[in-house]
C-alpha cells in the first residue's frame, strides 16, 4: 500500500472507532433552525481568487453549534458565529465552501469572554464562544428535540465552574514542518496534529506535565513516533488526574518497549512534578487510531490512581473507562439512583458498568447488584473497588452486556431494575430484547449520546415500557455534547409510579 492509501485507511478506521467510543458524535442539523428570508450576504469578491470575503448575518445554529448564513443561494456554516451577529467571513470557493470567521461586526449578548483565548474549535470546544445561558439554551433545545416522542425533558443540570473539568487528557506527539516537536490533538477525522499547549477543558496540571515532557524530549533525544516511516518512539501521553484525591497518572504511549534512558527520564520528570503518583509505559505498535496498546509496564508507583466519587473510593487503571467530569458525574449518578427508586430489596443490573461506579453507589440501597462490562481491566477494577469499599452485595462479570442479558433471560433470572450506560453507539437488540424478557420494573438509561438513547428508548417503549422522566446533565461544557438519564417503567407498574 502507498503511504497515502495507508493514511486514508487509517483515517477511515479512526472515524469508525470514534463512533464506538464513549464521546458523543457530531449530530445532524436541527430541523427548526433553517435560515429565513433572503440571503443577507454582501459579496466582496476578489476576482480570480478562490477565497472571497463576504459580509453575512447569522440566522441560526446547526446542532454542531455553527452559525448558519446564506450566500449565493447556499447555506454555509460558520464556526464561532452566533445568531443575530453580522460578520466578515472568508469563504473558500474550492470544494466544500469552507468558511472562516474574520471579524464580528455586532457581537451578540450571548457571546462569552472565555478566561483565555487559546483554543481551537476543532479540538473540541465548539461552543466556548457562547455564554453559560446560551449554552444551556442550546443544549436544552437539542435534547428537547431528540426526546420529543417521549415527553418534555427537565431543565438541564449545568456546571457552576465549567472549565478545566476534564480528568483525562490524551496528547499526541509529532514533528511540525520545521521539524520541531509538537503535542496536540488530531484534527477531526484525520491524523494531522493541531498543536495545543493549553485547553479550556483540561486540568491545568495535566497540560503542564505534557509541556514538561515535550521540553524533556529534546535533551533526552527522544523522537516522536512517525506513523508514515514507523520511526521514533513517543506516540501519545495520557494523563489521569484524581480530581478529589489529587493523585496523578502519566502513561507514556510508545511504539516500542525499548525505552532508552528510562530511569533518568522518570527521575527528571518526577523531580519537576513530584505530584505525579504513578507512571506507566504502554506499548502500542499497531497501525490504527487506538491510543492504548494491550501491553503495559508500571515504571513508577502502583500503576493505578484512586479517586473519590459519591462518598466511595475507586481505583482506576489506565485502560478503564472513568467519567471525565467528576463534579457533574456525582449529579448524574444521584439522579440515576433516584430514578431507580431503591428500597433495599431489589436486584439491580448495572450494565456497561465500567469500574463499577454506578453499581457500587446503588448497592448501598439495593438487595444485590450484578454488574457486567466488556473491558477486563475495568472488571478487575470493579471487583477491587467492591472490596475496597466493603461492599458485600455486588458481583461483577466480564462479557458482552447483550449476551449476558440473553443468558440471564434464558435462565429465567430476575431483575427488578436495570441501569444501563452503554457507549456512544448505544445498546443492541440482544440486550434490549432480553430486558423486555426479564421484565424489570424500571430501566434507568444513562447516555452520552441522546440520539442512540432515543433509538433504544423507542424499542423499549414499543415493547411495554413508558418514559417517566428525562433528565439532561451537562457533562461536557463548552462542547456540543449532552448527557441524559431517563427513567422507563413497565406499563403494569406505570400506574403506581
Ligand atoms: N457506567 C460506567 C461506564 C460507562 S462507559 C461509568 O459510569 O463509569 C460504557 C462502558 O461500556 C465502558 O466501560 C465500555 O468498556 C463498556 N462496553 C462497551 N461495549 C460493551 C458491551 N458490548 N458489553 C459490555 N460493556 C461494554
Write the layout of secondary structure elements.
Elements: H1 3-20, E1 42-44, E2 51-57, E3 60-61, E4 67-71, E5 74-78, E6 86-92, E7 99-104, H2 132-146, E8 168-175, E9 181-186, E10 193-195, H3 204-219, E11 234-241, E12 248-254, H4 262-272, E13 278-283, E14 295-300, E15 305-309, E16 312-316, H5 326-340, E17 347-351, H6 357-363, E18 368-373, H7 376-388, E19 394-398, H8 401-410, E20 417-420, H9 429-438, E21 442-447, H10 450-462, E22 465-473, E23 483-490, H11 491-494
Parallel strand pairs: 12-13, 17-18, 17-20, 18-19, 20-21
Antiparallel strand pairs: 1-2, 2-6, 3-4, 4-5, 6-7, 8-9, 8-11, 9-10, 11-12, 13-14, 15-16, 21-23, 22-23
Helix pairs in contact: 3-4, 8-9
Bound molecules: S-adenosyl-L-homocysteine.
Please give a structural write-up.
The chain has helices at residues 3-20, 132-146, 204-219, 262-272, 326-340, 357-363, 376-388, 401-410, 429-438, 450-462, 491-494; strands spanning 42-44, 51-57, 60-61, 67-71, 74-78, 86-92, 99-104, 168-175, 181-186, 193-195, 234-241, 248-254, 278-283, 295-300, 305-309, 312-316, 347-351, 368-373, 394-398, 417-420, 442-447, 465-473, 483-490. By secondary structure, the protein is α+β, with helices and mostly antiparallel strands. The protein folds into three domains: 23-111, Beta Barrel (OB fold (Dihydrolipoamide Acetyltransferase, E2P)), CATH 2.40.50.140; 137-160 and 325-494, 3-Layer(aba) Sandwich (Rossmann fold); 168-309, OB fold (Dihydrolipoamide Acetyltransferase, E2P) (Beta Barrel), CATH 2.40.50.1070. The chain has a seven-stranded mixed beta sheet with strand order 10-9-8-11-12-13-14. Strand 1 and strand 2 form a beta hairpin. Helix 3 (204-219) crosses helix 4 (262-272) and helix 8 (401-410) runs parallel beside helix 9 (429-438). The longest helix has 18 residues, at 3-20. The N and C termini lie far apart (61 Å). S-adenosyl-L-homocysteine binds at residues 22, 321-323, 352-354, 357-358, 372-375, 378, 400-401, 421-423.
Amino acid at each position: 500500500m502507498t503511504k497515502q492509501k495507508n493514511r486514508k485507511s487509517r483515517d477511515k478506521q479512526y472515524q469508525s472507532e470514534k463512533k464506538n467510543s464513549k464521546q458523543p458524535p457530531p449530530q445532524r442539523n436541527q430541523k427548526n433552525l433553517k435560515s429565513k428570508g433572503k440571503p443577507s450576504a454582501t459579496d466582496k469578491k476578489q476576482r480570480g481568487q478562490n477565497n472571497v470575503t463576504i459580509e453575512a448575518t447569522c440566522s441560526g445554529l446547526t446542532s454542531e453549534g455553527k452559525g448558519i448564513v446564506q450566500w449565493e443561494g447556499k447555506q454555509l456554516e460558520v464556526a464561532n458565529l452566533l445568531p443575530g451577529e453580522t460578520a466578515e467571513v472568508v469563504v473558500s470557493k474550492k470544494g466544500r465552501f469552507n468558511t472562516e470567521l474574520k471579524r464580528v461586526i455586532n457581537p451578540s449578548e450571548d457571546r462569552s469572554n472565555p478566561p483565555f483565548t487559546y483554543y481551537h474549535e476543532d479540538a473540541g470546544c465548539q461552543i466556548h464562544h457562547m455564554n453559560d445561558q446560551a449554552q444551556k439554551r442550546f443544549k436544552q433545545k437539542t435534547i428537547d428535540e431528540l426526546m420529543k416522542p417521549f415527553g418534555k425533558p427537565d431543565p438541564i443540570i449545568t456546571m457552576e465552574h465549567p472549565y478545566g473539568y476534564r480528568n483525562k487528557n490524551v496528547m499526541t506527539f509529532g514533528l511540525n514542518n520545521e521539524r520541531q516537536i509538537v503535542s496536540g490533538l488530531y484534527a477531526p477525522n484525520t491524523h494531522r496534529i493541531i498543536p495545543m499547549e493549553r485547553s479550556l477543558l483540561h486540568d491545568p496540571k495535566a497540560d503542564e506535565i505534557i509541556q514538561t515532557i515535550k521540553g524533556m524530549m529534546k535533551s533526552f533525544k527522544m523522537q516522536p513516533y512517525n506513523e508514515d516511516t514507523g520511526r521514533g518512539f513517543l506516540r501519545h501521553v495520557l494523563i489521569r488526574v484524581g480530581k478529589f484525591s489529587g493523585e496523578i497518572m502519566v502513561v507514556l504511549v510508545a511504539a516500542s518497549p525499548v525505552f532508552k534512558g528510562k530511569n533518568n527520564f522518570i527521575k527528571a520528570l518526577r523531580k519537576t512534578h513530584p505530584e505525579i503518583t504513578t507512571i506507566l509505559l504502554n506499548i502500542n505498535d499497531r497501525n490504527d487510531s487506538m491510543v492504548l496498546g494491550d501491553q503495559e509496564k508500571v515504571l513508577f508507583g502502583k500503576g493505578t490512581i484512586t479517586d473519590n466519587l459519591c462518598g466511595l473510593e475507586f481505583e482506576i487503571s489506565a485502560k478503564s473507562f472513568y467519567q471525565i467530569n467528576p463534579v457533574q458525574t456525582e449529579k448524574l449518578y444521584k439522579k440515576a439512583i433516584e430514578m431507580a427508586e431503591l428500597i433495599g430489596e431489589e436486584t439491580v443490573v448495572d450494565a456497561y458498568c465500567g469500574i463499577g461506579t454506578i453499581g457500587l453507589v446503588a448497592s448501598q440501597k439495593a438487595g444485590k447488584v450484578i454488574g457486567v462490562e466488556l473491558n477486563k481491566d475495568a472488571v478487575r477494577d470493579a471487583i477491587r473497588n467492591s472490596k475496597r469499599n466493603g461492599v458485600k452485595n455486588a458481583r461483577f462479570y466480564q462479557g458482552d452486556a447483550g449476551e449476558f442479558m440473553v443468558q440471564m433471560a434464558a435462565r429465567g433470572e430476575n431483575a427488578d431494575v436495570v441501569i444501563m450506560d452503554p457507549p456512544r453507539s448505544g445498546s443492541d437488540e440482544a440486550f434490549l430484547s432480553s430486558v423486555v424478557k426479564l421484565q424489570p420494573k424500571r430501566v434507568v438509561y444513562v447516555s452520552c449520546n441522546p440520539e442512540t438513547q432515543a433509538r433504544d428508548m423507542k424499542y423499549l417503549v414499543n415493547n411495554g415500557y413508558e418514559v417517566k422522566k428525562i433528565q439532561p446533565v451537562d457533562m461536557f461544557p463548552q462542547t456540543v455534547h449532552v448527557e441524559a438519564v431517563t427513567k422507563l417503567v413497565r406499563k403494569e407498574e406505570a400506574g403506581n409510579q
